[in-house]
Specification:
This protein is α/β, with parallel strands linked by helices and 331 residues long. The protein has two domains: 3-146 and 315-330, Aspartate/ornithine carbamoyltransferase (Rossmann fold); 162-309, 3-Layer(aba) Sandwich (Rossmann fold), CATH 3.40.50. It is 39% helix and 15% strand. α10 links the parallel β11 (243-247) and β12 (286-288). The structure holds phosphoric acid mono(formamide)ester.
């Protein structure tokens, strides 16, 4: 494996194979598998789970890693093509990424959406450039429209919980004071569709995911025997649900316009998950979220602290699935 950028690049069988390897590495640790291998980690944006789990995963496999946070102790990196670099950035990714890649055996990069131009972000313009600049195996640690490591960990979490392939999976928009990127909702929607689930996207008017993202998920559902629908009626969405995956995202129709997005979301503070949301769901329905989560803004304490919440298990599972990716790439 030379690239881990999008679950859509893999067949269902290849994903199941990676999940089996994750389980195997958990049951039978291989502390010498990656001795002598170096993983470079570049974080253009903050992280807690991704940063820690990749470093720990590499160490547990016997390898080593280094972390670059551009602009924090290292040169700020310019990402715009044809930029006149008379601002804060002293170096361009066109030099920075190949140089870093030359020091290591694989590179992981986190580069969130620019958040200004929806089409550019849907096209993964920045990550596409990074991909072309990197001549070593490359891992997407969250790009404009994807977070495959999170998606793989969430798939594993549902397998562990024995949530059936055909179960009802509700991806619901939840409130956040700011417009957040579309990477996790896009990756989550696609993952659940690829797993073969009955997927419903619940979102207020104005927050429908872009047609390109819905179409990609519907294609995956068609191949796996699942389904994808959307509604603004979260009560009907949650009827009979096995899983509620809560996620915050910005309004695609006001992409890059924080003021217009803010006006749209101002009346939506009740889109904060509490126990009442589960009234029509299955009794043991689970609450998933990729974290970080704002308590009592996106999800109420009573849910996060109750038996439905599996958010910490999702985070824990990042370690196992990323170790599987690293093992497949580097061993
Ligand atoms: N879910 C996730 O990617 O967490 P971090 O942003 O903390 O890495």
């Amino acid at each position: 494996m030379n690239r881990f950028l999008d679950l859509a690049d893999f067949s269902r069988e290849q994903v199941l194979d990676l999940l089996a390897l994750a389980q195997s590495l958990q049951d039978h640790p291989q502390p010498h598998a990656l001795v002598g291998k170096i993983l470079g980690l570049v974080f253009f944006n903050p992280s807690l789970r991704t940063l820690a789990s990749f470093q720990v995963g590499m160490s547990r496999l016997g390898g080593d890693s280094f972390v670059i946070t551009p602009g924090q102790g290292t040169w700020q990196l310019e990402t715009r093509l044809n930029a006149v670099m008379n601002g804060a950035a002293a170096e361009h990714v066109r030099e920075g990424i190949p140089v870093l890649a030359s020091y290591c055996d694989a590179l992981g990069v986190r580069a969130f959406a620019d958040g200004k131009n929806l089409q550019n972000d849907l096209n993964e313009t920045l990550f596409g450039m990074i991909d072309r600049l990197c001549d070593k195996p490359l891992i997407n640690m969250e790009s404009a429209m994807n977070h495959p490591c999170q998606a793989l960990a969430d798939w594993r979490t549902m397998d562990e919980l024995r949530i059936p392939k055909r179960a009802k999976f509700v991806l619901s928009w939840v409130y956040h004071p700011k417009m957040l990127p579309l990477a996790v909702p896009s990756a989550t929607l696609h993952m659940a569709a690829m797993r073969g689930m009955e997927v419903v996207v619940a979102r207020p008017e104005g927050f429908a995911l872009p047609p390109e993202i819905m179409a990609k998920a519907r294609l995956a559902a068609a191949a796996s025997g699942g389904s994808v629908s959307e509604t603004s009626d979260r009560v009907s969405a949650l009827a009979g649900a096995n899983v509620l995956y809560a996620k915050e995202w910005g309004s695609p129709q006001h992409y890059g316009d924080a003021e217009a997005d803010g006006r749209l979301r101002a009346d939506l503070v009740d889109w904060c998950v509490n126990e009442r949301w589960f009234a029509g769901a299955l009794p043991d329905a689970k609450l998933m979220h990729c974290l970080p989560v704002r308590r009592n803004v996106a999800v109420a304490d009573e849910v996060l602290d109750g038996p439905r919440a599996v958010v910490k298990r999702e985070a824990f599972n990042r370690l196992a699935v990323q170790m599987a990716v690293l093992h497949r790439m580097l061993s």
